[in-house]
Amino acid sequence: MKARATIFSSLNSTTFSVTRVKRSVPLRQFRRPVCSPASQLSPCLSVLSRETRFIHPTLNAPLRRDMSSSTHSDPTSPPTFEFLRLESDEKNKHLVRVVIERTAVHNAFNEQLIAELTSAFRHISSKDYRCCVITGAGSSFSAGADLNWMKRMASMSQEENKRDSLQLFDMIYAIKRCPFPVIARINGAALGGGSGIVAACDIGYSIETATFGFTEVKIGLIPAVISPFVMEKIGRGNCSHYFLTGRRFGASEAKSIGLIQESYKTPEELDAQVERVTAEICSNGPQATRLCKDLISKVCDMSIDDPETKEYVARQIASARASPEGKIGLSAFLEKKKPDW
């Protein structure tokens, strides 16, 4: 979708000026979509900072709350979505891509996108994929919360706000607990909850021009729901710095604090790295990869002085060595051939 003209309002004047959203980082085209958008995007409103608002005539128009497009009775069939799509890869059948597609509002969340992402990751988690890539269509990865959604939440009760927040947590948790590795391909701004998604992924690669930030305090809110995922990723000290200041930062800084692994100058370089890493992951033992992800999650909370840690890691390697996949892998290594998995 072409970048739309965006209207900015001066804080000290009623005069409006028109400027264009910067050139988007193109998403490579894949030939085998698993799911496609069900309809055109509905007009919405997003906020990227305290000073900048994206204005649309239908500011107060409620978004459709019908979640039927992201629910399905048959758990074996792929769900259909309005605001995202799933793609398989002709070159790598073990890889699946999740593409957020609300480009008119820089892929910002509302309650429907939250439900769709949760449904998508629960669906792919039940399949035998070996790796997932999540990215955004257009110029942004995700600008965080949609302002229309936040406006509605502000008018609702504390209990209703809690229910919506629990659904947001479930979305991030579904990404975090996907049984196989999830790679974030950050093609543009990843703000607020967008940075929360990045934190929930196992690996992150970014375009150099991407912007990150936990900007909630700028509009009088706090990054409560995403905080456990971000804290685990970048640590308490970094969370104190970025949560309390709410300032934005670039890809090199995101790399230095461990939010992402690397950044690249061009979309082509970014995609080449994502392709290399996904191919590498998908060539590994599929069960071993899943067990390794689980191992990382559990061992990081263990103490090396706890006897249970010793028992746990010994059980894990013993089980892997005795497994059919472990035997195939060791045999192939000794015979100097590729394992058949």
From TrEMBL:
| Entry similarity comment | Belongs to the enoyl-CoA hydratase/isomerase family.
Name listed for the protein in its UniProt record: Enoyl-CoA hydratase
